[in-house]
Amino acid sequence: MKIFALSIKLVLFASVLVVAQPHPQNPPPDPDPVPITGIEYLLISGGAYGIYRFSKKRKKKNPQV
After folding, report:
1. Could you give the CA distance from residue 49 to residue 55 in angstroms, rounded to a whole number?
2. pTM exceeding the 0.70 threshold for the entire prediction
3. CA 45/CA 65 separation, integer angstroms
4. Contact, 41 vs 47, CB < 8 A?
């Protein structure tokens, strides 16, 4: 039983040492962490167009506002 407990402790200790080692060639940080691509532009423009159409329809329905 002592050998089993010792081997478990050794494995856990070794895994902690392996995880704690820094990678020698860390990649440089991304200068633009959230890039906006074509899909995002389409979603933003579609949302803006929908808001525009909704407000236009609302003004047409209720001219006092």
Report:
1. 10
2. no
3. 25
4. no
DSSP states of 1-65 as a string? -HHHHHHHHHHHHHHHHHHHSPPTTPPPPPSSSS---HHHHHHHHHHHHHHHHHHHHHHHH-TT-
Location of structure tokens 């329809």: 57
22 vs 53: CA distance, rounded Å = 54
Q: Per the structure block, which two tokens stand in for 6? A: 């010792």
pLDDT in tens, 2-61: 888 888 888 777 766 565 556 667 777 767 677 778 888 899 999 999 999 998 888 877
CA distance 48 to 60: 18
